Amino acid sequence: MTPDVRDRADRPFRADPRTVTGGAIPEAAWDRALRLIGQADEIALACHVTPDGDALGSMLAVGFVLRSMGKRVVASFGDHHFVVPRLLRFLPGQDMLVPPQDYPAAPELMITFDVSTFERLGLLRENTARAREVIVIDHHPSNEGFGTLSLIDSTAAATAVLAEQLMYRLGGRLDRDIAVCLYTGLVTDTGSFRHSSTTPAVHQMAARLVATGLRTDEIARELWDRSPFGYLQVLAAALERAALEDGLVWTYVTRVDRAAHGLPYAELEGIIDIVRRTDEAEVAVVLKEDDQGDWQVSTRSKGKADVGAACAALGGGGHHNAAGYTSHETVEATMDAFRRELGKVGWPRAG
Ligand code: 5GP
Ligand code: MN
Predict the structure, then answer these.
(1) Does residue 350 lie in a domain region?
(2) What pTM value is reported for the model?
(3) Which of 104, 165, 192, 301 is 20 to 30 A from 330, comparing alpha carbons?
(4) Which residues surround ligand 2, an ion (CB under 5 A)?
């Protein structure tokens, strides 16, 4: 369910950041996390494949905190083609990153960020399976809890909210680098404070982060307001093909489209935000062909349809209003399967 801001607006805000989420994580779980972290010399961090701002930002923020405690920190994500998306290269702390090949084979302690399913660990699945302890920090309602300790709160607007709480509990101090990482996670997952997950507590957290002196204008430009020129051509091709049928708007972008303009896959992230503005559509879908020739399916809902459930049924996951999965089928077959799953979760509604 989408959290309802009105349910929480009248609750008094308390300055202690430990109290700002719905308290879905038991105190005993936090205590155990602190103990595991306290005992470890080296800590291996991981976020989901093709990381977004929340995944990478939360991971690097906690990396800074652990480093300041004297821990050895390695961080990674399990992509075959290990590169930080251009959009996120401004994030500090990237010297913590190692390619999956150099990741500890059997970490003593691992912490995962924004990883909702074991699959989303990609090449780091084996390392995770062999790790002694795995703390899973996440806010996806669909998280299957694949670790030895879950810090999962689906009422949190971003994994960055939980990362901030972990920081305070560890006795860490917020500085500018940490704030840039956490703010990137928060602003990404709330859609620039537009989604219904944007509670008073979210703005209070943003205030703490901005108070460190970070440049919100520069972060916004890096994340959303720049692209290589080729993006305009690829976007034009995608929009040209957009189809509207029964409240569903969809389009696709092929590898060939991108190759013609030398555009990397990661540059396609913003297309869904343009497609989903269609007034006549409740659900928006963009199929993006990756470098391996698979379709990465991005889906969005305005609230009536649970695209998270539909994507979960197709092997992916996400949230009620924003979700995705990977398809190895043709465009037509992929859309047929998606429409079928949407139908099963009761959309479009009869009558
Ligand atoms: P996006 O469309 O921006 O890639 O993803 C939207 C949401 O769906 C994000 O919360 C992301 O975590 C989730 N998501 C996207 N692709 C997948 C996938 O292949 N598997 C799972 N479990 N979640 C996904
Ligand atoms: Mn997230």
Answers:
(1) no
(2) 0.91
(3) 301
(4) 54, 114, 159, 189
